[in-house]
Amino acid sequence: MVYTRKNPALLIIGVIMLVYWLAVSTGMLDGLLKVLKTTGSKPEMIQLSLIFGVVGVVIGLWQWFGSHTEGELDYYSSAIAGGMFILLVAMLVRWYLDPLVRLASTAIGPVIPGKRYIHGVFGLNYIVLGIVAGMIIVNVFKIPDWAQNGVRISRLGLKTGVILLGTLYSLGELVQLGKLSVVLIGFFVLGSVGLVLWMGSRRHISNSMGGVLSAGVGVCGVSAAVAAAPVVQAKSEEIAYTIGTILVFGVICMFLFPVIGHLLGMGYIQFGAWAGTGILNSAQVAGAALAFQPRGIETLKVAEIFNITRVLFLPIIVLWLAVWYVRREAAAGVTVQQVDTSRVIFEKFPLFVLGFILMFALSSTGIFAPAQHYQGRYFDNSKSKLLEEKDLNTLKAESGKLQRDDEKQALARLLESKKTQSINHDTTLRGIVNSGVLSKDANTVLTKAHNAVYHTAKKISAFRKWLAWLFAFGLTGLGMQITMAAMRQAGGQPLVIGGVVGTAKAVFSLIVVLLFVRETI
Amino acid sequence: MTDPKSQDIDVHTTETGFKYHRGSALSIFKSDRHEDFMALIFAAVIAFGVYFFIN
Questions:
Q1: What is the mean pLDDT of the segment spanning A62-66?
Q2: Does A77 reach chain B within 8 Å, measured CB to CB?
């Protein structure tokens, strides 16, 4: 079987991207970009459409006119067309559909008090719209034949994104979030695995079905179900039932969690902790976090720490299930074929988690944020970095509103020096803004003081851009894999048990997060 | 006789009708470990690119 399709599809995608590059770089689309308020994305549009346009044309010509024989090169290179198809859809959604939806939503006006617009409440951003676009393409129009193989590389984009996310954590963040996540995840993973096994025995499903379902619902979705399958000797239809159940529940959660999060006024840490605990599958955790905060990375960082902690529980769960399965089968008088549990754990442990830790360790050495990127940050006293007299008067008029001594001192220091003096000074002033004690005008002045000294290292900004595109690519492709047929696989007892335990986990983790998780970590 | 290395052997079909001989409906790679390795390589390439070309 030869996978490469001899047709002009990839070449056409490449030409479309090059035409787009020409139109944007010559300023032909400036008027449209201004209306859509996406002028800031122009450098990104020029860069991406040029690079991928050239890739599409060169490989497209080779695929259309070259001769192809079956083998590794044919198999893997045939995926490029599908990958470019996902990228094209992601570009259209990010640069056009998302701004259009925002414009329309803003034109309609706030739908609930507090200036909340439809797109904000329902999380209609490039992540959600990309997933929905993918689902519509696969279920209504069908993925074109030439793109079918490439659609299966979207998960590679997500895993690469998770590894690179490691560059954005500080040691303090990781320690604080790690402690919180181990406690929360430990309780909910072990609790939900135990609950599925207990419900499974009460409802008389097979031990193998109960085992594989408990791993899927309790740990990290599809990967965990596949990892646990050998130790409980699950049949392929039991794995399919589990994947169907996880998929149905995950898709519902991915769309519902951000809406609930916005309605409850949750902060980034609270929502990230909830999504990372309550949503069953890793991909949907990333989807929900980015849907909640599409133009920032904070929620995703929190959610992924919880998700990775959950993955780290996988060896414990596999061991538990191995012992549990052997005992249950032996009690029923069935002879069990021995499985090498340690080998299963070694072979199935997700390596990308180690990649994330490695990237964090590398980033902790400071190689991606060298000192010269912050030159003059707190020592530049040029006029543009100092607050003006009217700004100082705004702050002076409201200084009496502050109660805490450290905040009073920080403000007095700012009024005296007209600029932020150190990272600790900046942190205290940001705390005043976040507390909402001062007026909007005063907060604007404090934010101006923050922006005068704060900037992200260029390399870190570049990682953020890569992450945004890797997740947009991965999640748009994920949408293209959510078929109605796959969801129909779910059914019967596994769906009932998975639904009950999944809902209980989502509701109880929400209560725990709202009660015990604060935004001050 | 069928070539044991042929991509025609062990062919699966997805619900959308697409046929593949390795990996799963969710991945082109023959195992999760293989996919993780590729993700590590891509991440390393991007990290090196950012390190050397962004200043």
A1: 92
A2: no
Closest CA relative to residue A78, chosen from A61, A66, A65, A63: A63
| Tokens 């945004």, residue located | A468
Task: Look at the alpha carbons of A144, A149, A155, A158 in this order and tell me if their dihedral is positive or negative.
Answer: negative
**Do the domain assignments include residue A163?**
no
Beta-carbon contacts of residue A169 (< 8 Å; ≥ 6 apart): A301, A305, A360, A363
Average pLDDT value for residue range A342-361 = 82
Which amino acid does the sequence have at A227?
A: A
Regarding whether A499 and A353 lie in a shared domain, the answer is yes
Q: Are A320 and A406 in a shared domain?
A: no
Give burial (CB, 10 Å; 0-12/13-18/19+) of A384.
exposed
Residue A456, both tokens = 């992200």
Residues A48 and A189 in one domain: no
How many CB atoms sit inside 10 A of residue A43's CB? 11
* Vertex A111 angle, CA A107 and A114, to 5°: 105
A57: in domain: yes
Are both A384 and A356 inside the same structural domain?
no
Q: Are A474 and B39 in contact (CB under 8 A)?
A: no
Q: Are residues A274 and A245 in the same domain?
A: yes
Give the whole-angstrom CA distance, residue A363 versus residue A521: 21
Chain B contact set for A73 (CB, 8 A): none
Inside any domain, residue A195: yes
In a domain, A166, yes or no: no
Q: How many domains does chain A have?
A: 3
**In which domain, by residue range, is A197 found?**
174-363+491-511
- Whether residues A349 and A495 fall in one domain: yes
Nearest to A178 by CA among A351, A281, A308, A315: A308
Measured between its terminal Cα atoms, the distance across chain B in Å is 58
pLDDT digits (tens, 9 = 90+) for A36-61: 999 989 999 999 999 999 999 999 99
**In whole angstroms, what is the distance from residue A208 CA to residue A287 CA?**
30
pLDDT tens-digit readout, A81-115: 999 999 999 999 999 999 999 999 988 888 776 65
Helices (H), A378-457: 389-398, 405-417, 423-435, 440-453
For B43, name the nearest residue in chain A, comparing CA atoms only: A160
Chain A segment 125-164 residues within 8 A of B by beta carbon are: 138, 142-143, 145, 148-150, 152-153, 155-156, 159-160, 162-164
**Residue A112: beta bridge partners?**
A116
Query: Is the CB of B12 inside 8 Å of chain A's CB atoms?
Result: no
Structure tokens at A175: 């320690």
Q: Do A367 and B43 touch (CB under 8 A)?
A: no
CB nearest B7 (choices: A70, A222, A348): A70
ipTM score above 0.90: no
